[in-house]
Amino acid sequence: MVNIGNDWDEVLAGEFDKEYYLRLRKFLIYEYRNGTVYPDMYDIFNALKYTAYKDVKVVILGQDPYHEPGEAHGLAFSVMKGVRQPPSLENIFKELESDLGIPAPPKNNGCVMPWARSGVLLLNTALTVRAHQAGSHRGKGWEQLTDRIIEVLNAREKPIVFILWGSNAKSKAPLITGRQHLVITGVHPSPLAAYRGFFGGKYFSRANDFLIANGEQPVDWRIER
User: Fold this and answer.
1) Which of 64, 99, 147, 209 is catalytic?
2) Is the pLDDT assigned to residue 225 strictly greater than 80?
3) CA-to-CA distance for 82 and 224, rounded, in angstroms?
4) Most buried residue, 27, 73, 100, 108, by CB count within 10 Å?
5) What is the average pLDDT across 50-55?
6) How far is CA 100 from CA 78, 104, 107, 191, in A?
7) Pairwise CA distance, residues 179 & 185, whole Å
8) How many CB atoms sit inside 10 A of residue 116's CB?
9) What mean pLDDT value characterizes the chain?
10) pLDDT digits (tens, 9 = 90+) for 58-101
């Protein structure tokens, strides 16, 4: 039913046959047939496709995909090249520059796929959304799947950094019980919330410092290389 194409297929074996996911699948079939849903159905699982389970060093957890045309492509906070950076992503790049001195990329390049290829799992708590309706696919089953993804990552012995931005992401914190992992929480980077505590969180340097301290290669946070 779902083929990721890497070790996630084995790690999540049987998950897509469970009753909650079958109900979710029926709901999604109806939604895609009768309206506009983001991302494209072939991009829903891109976060898992681009970052294999064994390669995950950092998890950046958001809430749900961008809900305007041309933005969402299956990686949390990312947009494809040529699409103007949404405000949340602009704020992420501002924090990255303040934290590590990495210059923000041009406004028409918000594709953070290089992060995914460097071991950053860019996951939302819900993986689809109805056009122009933020949060419209919450409570339909995605949370159970993303809970399971967090649980299997938590079970890994190799240390992982979990960066949880916003209340939906923070709700996953109780699932992260392994003492070998680092959990960093922050305000969501949206303009409505960012100035209430997102800026100055130094998420990127803290993640890399933790990885280095545990004998892992740090993430290359540059977008343009």
Assistant:
1) 64
2) no
3) 14
4) 73
5) 98
6) 19, 11, 19, 21
7) 16
8) 24
9) 96
10) 999 999 999 999 999 999 999 999 999 999 999 999 999 999 99
Quick one: three-class SS letters along the chain? Answer: CCCCCCCHHHHCCCHHHCHHHHHHHHHHHHHHHHCCEECCHHHCCHHHHHCCHHHCCEEEEECCCCCCCCCCCCCCCCCCCCCCCCHHHHHHHHHHHHHHCCCCCCCCCCCCHHHHHCCEEEEECCCCEECCECCCCCCCCHHHHHHHHHHHHHCCCCCCEEEEECHHHHCCHHHCCCCCCEEEEECCCCCCCHHHCCCCCCHHHHHHHHHHHCCCCCCCCCCCC
User: Which residue shows structure tokens 């074996």?
Assistant: 13
Q: In the structure, what pLDDT confidence band is assigned to residue 195 with cuts at 50, 70 and 90? A: confident
State the pLDDT at residue 189.
96
CB 67 within 8 A of CB 38: yes
Is residue 182 a contact partner of residue 161, using CB atoms and an 8 Å limit? yes
Residue 224: predicted pLDDT: 79
- Pairing label, strands 161-165, 182-186: parallel
Predicted TM-score (pTM) above 0.85:
yes
> What single-letter amino acid sits at 14?
G
The residues, any chain, with a CB within 8 Å of residue 160's CB and separated by 6 or more, are 56, 57, 58, 59, 153, 154, 181, 182
Catalytic: 64? Answer: yes
Residue 25 contacts residue 1 (beta carbons within 8 Å): yes
Residue 113 · residue 49 · CB < 8 Å: no
pLDDT band at 194 (very low <50, low <70, confident <90, very high): confident
